[in-house]
Amino acid sequence: MAPSGLKKVKDFFSKYVAEDKYDSTTQVLMGAGSGWFTGFLAMRVAKTTAFAVGGGLILLQLATESGVVKINWKKIDKVKKLDDHKNEWIEEEKEFRKKLMDFFTNNTPFSMGFIGGFLIGMSF
């Protein structure tokens, strides 16, 4: 996620989920609602993605077996070796993870509501 994207997320949460702005009950309900919505969408996206990837793999295997597609494994090995930007992504991920943990640590009512709502949303 780009730094400007992180800033937008931080601004959104500081605007709507500021610890001193709402009481803990409101934060729990806001967290539960947003967690349920996120969990519900995550489950729908995960099911659709699993279906698309699984179907694609089956079709690719059938095409390979019938001779329609020929896979050049040497090119695939070359692509695997191109990890020039790996360290940059690792540092960005560590920074984002730290900011996310700081947010959840400082906003416990919202965090617990979000986690509970997310799990409920995943069950639908």
TrEMBL record:
InterPro entries: FUN14 (IPR007014). It is found in: Mitochondrion outer membrane. The keyword Transmembrane helix applies. Keywords: Membrane, Transmembrane, Transmembrane helix. It is a multi-pass membrane protein. The chain crosses the membrane at residues 103-122. GO terms for cellular component: mitochondrial outer membrane. Its main location: mitochondrion. It holds the Pfam family FUN14. Belongs to the FUN14 family. PANTHER family: FUN14 DOMAIN CONTAINING (PTHR21346), RE45833P (PTHR21346:SF0). This is FUN14 domain-containing protein 1.
